[in-house]
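Subject: Re: docking follow-up (zinc ion)

Dear J.,

Thanks for your patience while I sorted out the input files. As discussed at Tuesday's group meeting, I've set up the holo structure prediction with zinc ion included as the bound ligand rather than trying to dock it afterwards. The sequence and the ligand SMILES I used are pasted below, so you can double-check that they match what you have on your end before we go further.
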Amino acid sequence: MAYRRYHGSCHCQAVRYEAEFDMSSGSNRCNCSLCSKARAWFLFVSADKFKLLAGDDVLSSYQWTPPGRNDAFLTYRFCSRCGIRLYATGDHPQFGGRFYALHVPTLNDVDREELVNAPLRFVDNAHDRPDRTPADIRLM
Ligand SMILES: [Zn+2]
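The structure tokens for the complex came back this morning:
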């Protein structure tokens, strides 16, 4: 376990954040309809490990209730100036309460080799099976 502090931003730099996490915990690609559109690539941090440094006034939100669910599970936050999605927030016991799902490409100071060597999971949320790898991950 090697927790480090990292920094991230949107493309226009209006939104900036810092977060502490262990890169060796890995990151995730998801095949749900929304993640597919956004080419989502995310990693989880608990809310106490995240700090928004700038841009609260330009962040926009999006919520989506997946088929078969009663509520939107996540709130997606993106920059209203440059359109880049930075993270999603949620609250679930499985993730230790309130959490952030950071969009990995918005991180600015991650060591490339460290990221390459960290686990990358493919999750089959398109079939409501986050516990398994989709049958076809070629375009994820
Ligand atoms: Zn921006």
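A couple of observations from a first look. Residues 10-12, 14-15, 79, 81-82, 84 surround zinc ion (CB under 6 Å). Residues 33-38 form the longest helix (6 residues).

Let me know if you'd like me to rerun anything.

Best regards,
T.
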